[in-house]
Each structure stands twice: as structure tokens, then as C-alpha cells.
Inverse folding.
């Protein structure tokens, strides 16, 4: 890791580095890439509460308390952010609660925009009135993601326990307001794919096309119960996820071609022979063993002010992987009421953790099936200290965040 004045000006400019940025370099097949090690995104858990009880929600799997973030806590979060150009730092109101039920939610968004921070929102859409959609657009919110877990009413109701219709109406409402906003507001959906919902997801994509949405994000479920593990869709992908692509036999190289009725048999054969998505023909092995939180300058802040390196470590919880139970312990790197976020980000221990996560020299526990050492994330057989992220589903491209 170095500082931007060690990098030629042209490279520093292309990499988006500022004079006071720390940076790191990464060798790739296309050459050496220089990246800034600056804080760029904060997941803000405005509240630990929610107005739904969804089947796949991890909130049912832990004993942590839940409440709204206080005004003082949020003020310290905002004041502790690093100085930056407008919209260089994103505040994503999400986490594990429903942000829009916070009594001061709109005030929080407005204050973030006044502080020239880019704002994203992840919501279940059930509270998205015309007035709220209009206000979000007028405040210059950059992106709204609505969780829609199912492409039809039965699938959605099985996962979320409520009617799908009002949520689809909320998407249409947001899309209409985005059309009239002075600055573009990207609108999309996020869903969790399970055995119960996967057959309905083509219909969800069709809905997104009809509404002219900007994106669809499809993730696997984080299995917090044995029943949820049985409903998961990544058993084979998990087994080979953190093995090097060079070890796959046979390794197929396929050129780009149209997706059509003529090519569908080939694609089906590739997916049957290679139990992994994406297949190596479409990927250079860059989707696995990669901590996107550490690489992209991301932290998470809980409703009570704890700062963690990622969403997975925000709360202690159980995960069921390969037929066994694993305890994932939470891991804090600081608290915004004791130190500003900019200081927490540059703390030497947190900096060292990010280096370790970017290198990701950890045991391939998902590939080998795990053992007693991997019953918790406190260590692995490579001697990785806590937190040992060798079985992190996010780092293996199995679970994705919008």
C-alpha cells in the first residue's frame, strides 16, 4: 500500500486518486491496476426493526436487540465521514431493518444530501406511497432497490407473507417519479432465489422489462436454518467456489455467441457439466475469493453505531453449509460514537484486515467440506485469525448485495 504521490499523475487521475488517498496495486491479466483504498460506501442500518417477517430474513436467527438509530448517532456518522467531492461517498440505507419505517427517515436522507453524499435505499416497498416516492426523487436519491422475492403472487407470499401487488405498484410509482426527477434515480429489484421461488423468476424479469426498470439483482439465500439450507440452490457452486479455475477438469474455452434457440442446447450442456455459475467461458475466475467490501471501500454501521467490515459480520448468527452448522461471530472495527468513521477506516488494524481480505489467502473450506476448525469463523486450517472468511458466501459470488 502506498500514497498517490508515488504514482504518476496520469495513472493517479485515471484511478480516481486524490493527493491524500492511500492506494493499492493489483496484478491482473490486463496489467497492474491501481485502486484507491478510500472509504466509498457505508451501509447505514437506520433501524433494526421491520414491518415484515420474511421467511429468509436472518433477523429471526439471532438474539440481538433492535431499535431505531438515534439522531445523535446519525449526526456523528455524518460528521465522521471523510472530506470528499460531492457524491464521492455513498450512504446506502439498508442493513437488516426496513429503513423507511424510521420516524426521521426522510430527514436522514435530506441531511445526507445536504452533506453532498450520494444516497441509495434498499426497501421492501410496502411503505412506498406517492408522497414518499416524490420526495425521494426531489431529494436527488441516486438509487432505490425494492426487494421482490418472487415473480408471482404465491412465491412472493411464501417468502414475504404479504401481497405482491402493492410492491409492484410501488416500483411503478418510483419509475414514474424517476422520469420527472432533475437527477436520474435508478430503480431496480433485488430477489433471493430459492427452490420455492426460482421457477417464478423469469416472470420477475419480465415485470422488470415491462416497467422499464434499470436492474435486477438475484442472490442466493444465506441459509440460517436447516430448512433454509434445504431450500438453497448453491450446493455444487459452493463446493467448487474457492478452488482455482485452473483445477477444473475439463476446462472449456468457448467463444462469444448469440443466446438463441440454436445455442440453448450448448448452454444447457455447459451448465450440466460445470456445476457453477458463471461457467469459465464467461468468467476469468475473478468472481470468487474476492471480498467486495474490502476491495470497494465499504463498511456497515448498525442502528446502535457499531462499525463492521461487511454486512455478514454485523450480527452473530448461524449458517448451514454442506449439511453442517457454522457459527459466524460478529466483528466490530469501531464505534461511531467513540471515533469518526474516517479515523476508524484508517486504523492500522482495520487497514491490515483489508489487506488480508484482498489477498484472500485462506483455506478452501467450501471446497473441502469443512471440519471442526471451521465450525466458527474464528480461524481456519491455514491459521487465519478471526475473522476467518474462507466460507463467506459473499466472497464466493454466491450471495450478492444490490
Amino acid at each position: 500500500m502506498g500514497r498517490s504521490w508515488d504514482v504518476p499523475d496520469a495513472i493517479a487521475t485515471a484511478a480516481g486518486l486524490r493527493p491524500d488517498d492511500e492506494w493499492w496495486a493489483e496484478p491482473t491479466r490486463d496489467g497492474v491496476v491501481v485502486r484507491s483504498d478510500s472509504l466509498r460506501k457505508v451501509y447505514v442500518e437506520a433501524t433494526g426493526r421491520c414491518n415484515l417477517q420474511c421467511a429468509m430474513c436472518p433477523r429471526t436467527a439471532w438474539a440481538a436487540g433492535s431499535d431505531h438509530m438515534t439522531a445523535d448517532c446519525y449526526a456523528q456518522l455524518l460528521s465522521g465521514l471523510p472530506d470528499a467531492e460531492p457524491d464521492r461517498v455513498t450512504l446506502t440505507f439498508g442493513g437488516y431493518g426496513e429503513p423507511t419505517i424510521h420516524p426521521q427517515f426522510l430527514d436522514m436522507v435530506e441531511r445526507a444530501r445536504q452533506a453532498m453524499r450520494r444516497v441509495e435505499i434498499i426497501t421492501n416497498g410496502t411503505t412506498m406511497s406517492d408522497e414518499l416516492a416524490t420526495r425521494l426523487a426531489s431529494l436527488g436519491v441516486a438509487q432505490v432497490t425494492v426487494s421482490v422475492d418472487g415473480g408471482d403472487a404465491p412465491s412472493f407470499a411464501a417468502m414475504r407473507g404479504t401481497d405482491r401487488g402493492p410492491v409492484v405498484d410501488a416500483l411503478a410509482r418510483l419509475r414514474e417519479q424517476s422520469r420527472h426527477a432533475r437527477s436520474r434515480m435508478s430503480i431496480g429489484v433485488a430477489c433471493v432465489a430459492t427452490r420455492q421461488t426460482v421457477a417464478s423468476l423469469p416472470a420477475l424479469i419480465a415485470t422488470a422489462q415491462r416497467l422499464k426498470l434499470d436492474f435486477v439483482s438475484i442472490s442466493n439465500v444465506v441459509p440460517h436454518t436447516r430448512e433454509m439450507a434445504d431450500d438453497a440452490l448453491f450446493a455444487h457452486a459452493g463446493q467448487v467456489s474457492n478452488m482455482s479455475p485452473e483445477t477444473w477438469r475439463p476446462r472449456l474455452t468457448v467463444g462469444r455467441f448469440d443466446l438463441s434457440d440454436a445455442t440453448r442446447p450448448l448452454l444447457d450442456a455447459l451448465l450440466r457439466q460445470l456445476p457453477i455459475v458463471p461457467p469459465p467461458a464467461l468468467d476469468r475466475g475473478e468472481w470468487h475469493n474476492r471480498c467486495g467490501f474490502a476491495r470497494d471501500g465499504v463498511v456497515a454501521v448498525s442502528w446502535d453505531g457499531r462499525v463492521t467490515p461487511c454486512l455478514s459480520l454485523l450480527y452473530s448468527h448461524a449458517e448451514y453449509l454442506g449439511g453442517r452448522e457454522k457459527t459466524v461471530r460478529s466483528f466490530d472495527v469501531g464505534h461511531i460514537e467513540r471515533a469518526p468513521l474516517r479515523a476508524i477506516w484508517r486504523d492500522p488494524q482495520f487497514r491490515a484486515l483489508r489487506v488480508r481480505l484482498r489477498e484472500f489467502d485462506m483455506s478452501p473450506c467450501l471446497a473441502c467440506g469443512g471440519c471442526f476448525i471451521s465450525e466458527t469463523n474464528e480461524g481456519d486450517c491455514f491459521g487465519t485469525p478471526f475473522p476467518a472468511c474462507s466460507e463467506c458466501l459473499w466472497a464466493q459470488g454466491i450471495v450478492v448485495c444490490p
About this structure: The first strand starts at residue 2 and ends at 3. The mean pLDDT is 88. Residues 219 and 399 are 5 Å apart (CA to CA). The longest helix spans residues 165-180.
